[in-house]
Design brief:
Length: about 400
């Protein structure tokens, strides 16, 4: 009997495929609505007479609540441990479908803030559930979950583009239907959150004190992740405008972003698989080594080469995204939801804020002069810092 128990204890934990699959689909549903904004930005800019600085501010608006809110909800998720909180993501995100009903810049800004609250609830809980459901292959499991979000953004961009071109801008509102339906189902189908809420740290001060010993590697990983996310967010926010400014159409801009995100999905899955074999640090470095020059090159060549290179850059950069969450959870396993929100939410908020800077630079120097230089400088900074990350899987 002892031998059997020892063998069971030493056997690698098996992944719960049903839970992982549900989390991937849930992440697709949540992030699909964030994908609505980018391809519609040229139409919104024309209708509301927006400057590029205002475009950058709108691109960051969703993140003010969706991303910074994750830090707060991550802390409470470690205490409450309720899987049904995920349902608020697609339920609130569906508000994004009503963007063309907003009469001006500030009402649209407010709508994006409100839509982001659900995403702030969704991500900390879902990230931990993905880690718990992944078994011994946590890099692959979490990356599958993260890649569901990239695929969701691609689906959202494609759906918004189809609805706008088929029914006009106001027809984008039909896109709210699947989010409302699936979010309602998640209230009852969400995976259980394992662990005892009473074991969580009793207050925020003690939680922060317990993280002091791992702050330095966590912060370095966060900065590397910020650099990667800032340049990929630049693609999502400004490539449709860049394509239209060079004579392309709304449909071409939406298609390019969608293909970039589909390639990013594949890269994220394979990056997680490689990180289980080669280590999180190695995958992080290689993703930046390959992605940075590819992204710079994409702004210097015409289509169809631009789209193909953007797809390759997306696959390279996003190979690191899910890896960074697993990396952070391994650095601070007792605070998995909190560090996940730090690595995703706070980082996405900061990267979203950088879009205001990109927009202001583009107003001053033009999109063609700003985008390749910004991507080279910020991507190169992330690459340089990645060599100082801790060396463990």
């Amino acid at each position: 009997m002892a031998t059997v128990l020892e063998a069971q204890a030493s056997a690698p934990a098996r992944a719960n495929r049903r839970h992982i699959s549900l989390l991937v689909v849930a992440h697709m549903a949540n992030d699909a609505y964030h994908g609505f904004l980018s391809p519609m930005m040229p139409l919104l800019a024309q209708r509301l007479e927006l400057s590029l600085s205002m475009v950058g501010l709108l691109s960051s608006a969703h993140g003010i609540t969706a991303d910074m809110g994750q830090l707060l909800f991550g802390y409470f998720s470690d205490r409450l441990r309720k899987g049904w909180l995920m349902a608020l993501g697609p339920l609130c995100g569906a508000l994004m479908a009503f963007m063309f009903f907003m009469p001006g810049f500030w009402p649209l800004f407010g709508l994006l803030l409100l839509a982001g609250v659900g995403s702030a609830c969704f991500h900390p809980v879902a990230s931990v559930l993905a880690n718990q459901s992944a078994g011994s292959r946590k890099g692959l499991g979490v990356s599958l979950y993260i890649s569901g979000g990239r695929l969701g953004m691609a689906v959202g961009a494609s759906l918004a583009t189809f609805l706008a071109t088929r029914f006009g801008p106001d027809g984008v509102a039909f896109g709210a239907i699947p989010g409302l339906a699936f979010g309602s189902l998640l209230l009852f189908l969400s995976p259980p959150y394992r662990g005892d809420a009473a074991r969580a740290h009793p207050n925020l001060i003690e939680t922060l004190r317990s993280l002091r010993g791992v702050f330095r590697p966590l912060f370095r990983l966060w900065v590397v992740n910020f650099c990667r996310t800032s340049v990929t967010m630049t693609v999502n926010a400004f490539v449709p405008l860049f394509i239209v400014s060079t004579g392309g159409t709304i449909a071409q801009g939406g298609r390019t972003v969608a293909l970039h995100l589909v390639a990013a999905t594949a890269g994220g899955i394979y990056g997680g698989h490689l990180s289980d074999r080669l280590g999180r640090r190695s995958v992080t470095i290689v993703s930046l080594v390959l992605g940075t020059p590819l992204l710079v090159l994409a702004f210097l060549v015409p289509d169809p080469y631009r789209t193909l290179i953007l797809m390759a850059a997306g696959a390279s950069f996003y190979a690191q995204m899910g890896v960074s969450v697993t990396y952070a959870q391994e650095i601070a396993p007792a605070h998995a939801a909190l560090v996940s929100s730090f690595m995703l939410g706070v980082m996405w908020f900061a990267a979203g804020g950088s879009m205001v800077v990109v927009g202001a630079l583009a107003d001053a120097f033009g999109l063609a002069g700003t985008l390749p230089v910004y991507c080279a400088v910020v991507g190169g900074t992330g690459l340089a810092l990645s060599f100082g990350l801790p060396k463990f899987k």
